[in-house]
Input
Amino acid sequence: MNAATVIQLIVQVGLPLAIKLIEKWEKKENITSEELKALATSASLTARDHLMAVLKEQGIDPNSEQGKALLTAVG
Output
């Protein structure tokens, strides 16, 4: 895959999704509709969504001072 194609893919779908798609392409794997749906859902999450998930995983209350400070950092 040439650089222009990679750049276009990143611009269109974002870096995390582009990386996952390129990994599949390099392994010559097919992408199922379920995988594509999961990738699309993942790509649509905001930084705040990701942070909220991490806070939950780590047992940090988003309304705590620590949680509020972290959430403020991502907007």
In short: The chain has a mean pLDDT of 87. The chain has two domains: 1-44, 46-75. The first helix runs from residue 3 to 13.
